[in-house]
Amino acid sequence: MRKIPVYTHPAAGWPALISSTRKLMDYKAFMRGSVSVLHSNQPKGGFDCPGCAWPDHKTHKAIDVCENGIKVIASETMNQRADAAFFARHSVTELQSWSGYELEHSGRLSEPLYYDAAQDRYVAISWQAAYERIADVLKNLDSPDEALFYTSGRVTNEPAFMFQLFVRCFGTNNLPDCSNMCHEPTSVMLGKQLGVGKATVVLEDFEQAKLIMLFGQNPATNHPRMLEMLAHAHKKGCRIISINPMREQGLSKFRNPQKPTHMAAGQSDEMVDEVIQIQIGGDVALLTGLAKWLVENDKIDSNFITTHTSGFDDLKQWLVAQSWQDIELGSGITQADIINLAKLVADSPATICTWGMGITQHVQGEDNVAMITNLLLLMGMIGINGAGASPVRGHSNVQGDRTMGIHERPKQSLLDSLERVFKRPMPQENGLDVIAGAKALMQGKLKAFISMGGNYAVAAPDKSAIQTALTTTQLNVFVATKLNETMLYPGANNLILPCIGRTERVITAKGEQFATIEDSMCQIVPTQGRLKPISDDLKSEAQIVADMATYVLGPDSSIPWQTMGSDFDIIRNYIARAIDGFENFNERIRESERGFHLYHPARHRVWNTDSGKAQFEVPQYPITYVAAQMVETSADYHSNGTSDNFKDKNIEKSTEQRVWQLTSVRSHDQFNTMIFGHQDRYRQTNRRDVLFMHPDEIKRLGWQKGDSVMVSRQDSQDERRTLGPLILTEMDIAANAVATYYPECNDLIDLDSHAPDSRTPAYKSITVVLQRVNEGGQLMSYNNG
Ligand SMILES: Nc1nc2c(c(=O)[nH]1)N[C@H]1C(S)=C(S)[C@@H](COP(=O)(O)OP(=O)(O)OC[C@H]3O[C@@H](n4cnc5c(=O)[nH]c(N)nc54)[C@H](O)[C@@H]3O)O[C@H]1N2
Ligand SMILES: Nc1nc2c(c(=O)[nH]1)N[C@H]1C(S)=C(S)[C@@H](COP(=O)(O)OP(=O)(O)OC[C@H]3O[C@@H](n4cnc5c(=O)[nH]c(N)nc54)[C@H](O)[C@@H]3O)O[C@H]1N2
Ligand SMILES: [Mo]
């Protein structure tokens, strides 16, 4: 393939510092934000950066935060307010037409608000009146299961524990959370195979690893502090391989902001040795090729397999039956290249596999995780130093929220434990996850939607259908820091309850409080904001849950909600009694500045699985699942002709009627649905309405970069399933692949395409057709410059 211009600046370094300083100024957050940055991820009395779940590094210099962490902090510490005066100027109908970027920049939510339909505006309401409305609706539902309680992974452990307890005391397990859209295939599969659905590595393992394989992850943007660790490992001789349809430029060179000499001398570290430019959805096939070669050439750890695992014979039989032809078709990688990689795996005494959304967000998300774990087990790479499974979580406390019991399918042991400690029955039926919740909303089965953070409608598939469904409820409640689109589709009662953010102090009658989070490597860490809250009218999330519980469950509830809301030690005492691994929580969290590591049995080769051993799993889908789908749908497409979506528009089909796999990714200037800006430094674009394609493919189609292209779901005639026009943009990406930014593309994704058990939507593999807008067509209004 032709080389395309590469981004030549190192990752991080000066451009990162300049960009983040600019962001603090954009948000008019310079003073509040800068003070805050100095306190993030610091050993004593700082807050855990809300940017991502990567652990704190122990070798702290002055600042352990990254460019993108600073953007998240700037977003939270901005001085501007989205208060009643702001809403008096802008009706909700008007705000519906604002972009995610505009809503994000409207300011911090700073007083409780209620939607007044007569004025079509949010207006101020007292906290008490807000709680009364909530209680009035929730207490009068026919069943507690008519309410859905969503959590986003920003919420710290203490309020998360209270929230699940409140919801279960209310009577339902309807506790979906962002994890359903994120690392759920990881949690489900690792749980099944290793006994615990979490990373088996700790940070020190990265110092001893000899081979690190990064699957479907873009750490330069999404976990920038991980780059320092990778650069360090690389310097010590560790090989680093990225398996990704895109050559993510931020991964090639790294300039360390922690090292002033590095910055001044303009040095940078090389990081990734090789990129395996896989086809979208091709990971199972690649991993099958690796495992097949290792097994057939007897390069595996037979002792470990015999002593510690179960299911090897079935896996072996299956591997032997897979053909190299299918492996190549499914992965897009040649047998020779796969064997070369297999030899590296065979020779490595310590291998870590890390992964992100490129692995989980597919129909075969669970198969992907299963094959990564299978590979580690074949090589005996669990339970030794420098090796293991390292899923890299997204939200800073998404892992902790689950540990605290935010789960629509709770384990029986959790329910039993809650019943024992709180002496009341807990609901036993499984609740609704994100997908089932969205469907129930659309079917009119839900009458109330309560969210602790997040942007449910926009993050989920089928965004506009969820927004429409939200207008049919009796009650929607948003506990949040910033305005977003989910809040703009009011039901009969619509409330915004503004909360204190991670960077801000929580001071109660019991004094100043700190909370805790669990990072991606099972470390429980304290977090304490340092700033005065943006407004006196904010409450902590814990206090808001305490108040909702008091109003809804009534004063005779024997759980001391108000005491918990004002004294987080009391919450931690309950957590210590109810949640495994948190014994003596208050003592242990104070013993070390860095908190404590939760016991992970698989690290000690103890397997809490059904068989009592580590479990090999055979994939459920054929390894050519995505590739075959493309061949078949391509044929269909030929016979059916073009989609009707474009009937009356001046649109040109691609010269070849073929289908593409579309993947959706994050830009360098967003945190999930919070859009900070339009720059994607590494991918060299300053707009978000882009479609990335390899230059050779653009040429082959006879198209040009800068052309306007419509993208539509191959299998749908529905207008909503068409996105565009997007601007064709060059990118070093696999041949059958195109990419665009999340969340603008989320109407292309339907609620039925998801992994079977974890039910995580297939955001990363969407079969689409592309059509270019003709010159002179109505849609040629973009400016190419
Ligand atoms: N600054 C910033 N930080 C963040 C976030 C943010 O939005 N902004 N979000 C947070 C959250 S919640 C999460 S979950 C994480 C997400 O962190 P990532 O997992 O790094 O997120 P994505 O941008 O979704 O990108 C995933 C990568 O998968 C690749 N990919 C796509 N399809 C495939 C495939 O089929 N196979 C393989 N092997 N790769 C594929 C894409 O090219 C891309 O490089 O980041 C967290 N941190
Ligand atoms: N197409 C596509 N869709 C995806 C993905 C993808 O890769 N592609 N990724 C998926 C993934 S991995 C995830 S995790 C989800 C994200 O889904 P969510 O977690 O629901 O979305 P966010 O954009 O992180 O939520 C942002 C909102 O959280 C609120 N917030 C911020 N900080 C706080 C706080 O401290 N407390 C409270 N109470 N509220 C706060 C603000 O109001 C802000 O607007 O999106 C998923 N959707
Ligand atoms: Mo995520």
TrEMBL record:
Belongs to the prokaryotic molybdopterin-containing oxidoreductase family. GO terms for cellular component: membrane; oxidoreductase complex. Residues 661-765 form the Molybdopterin dinucleotide-binding domain. SUPFAM superfamilies: ADC-like, Formate dehydrogenase/DMSO reductase, domains 1-3. InterPro entries: Asp_de-COase-like_dom_sf, MopB_CT_YdeP, MoPterin_dinucl-bd_dom, Mopterin_OxRdtase, Mopterin_OxRdtse_a_bac, Prok_molybdopt-oxidoreductase, YdeP_MopB. Residues 108-499 form the Molybdopterin oxidoreductase domain. It comes from Psychrobacter luti. This is Molybdopterin-dependent oxidoreductase alpha subunit. One of its GO terms (biological process) is cellular respiration. GO terms for molecular function: 4 iron, 4 sulfur cluster binding; formate dehydrogenase (NAD+) activity; molybdenum ion binding; molybdopterin cofactor binding. Pfam families: Molybdopterin (PF00384), Molydop_binding (PF01568). Its cofactor is [4Fe-4S] cluster; Mo-bis(molybdopterin guanine dinucleotide). Gene3D superfamilies: 2.40.40.20, 3.40.50.740, Dimethylsulfoxide Reductase, domain 2 (3.40.228.10). Keywords: 4Fe-4S, Iron, Iron-sulfur, Metal-binding, Molybdenum, Oxidoreductase. NCBIfam families: Fdhalpha-like. The keyword tRNA-binding does not apply. The keyword Phosphoprotein does not apply. It comes from the Bacteria.
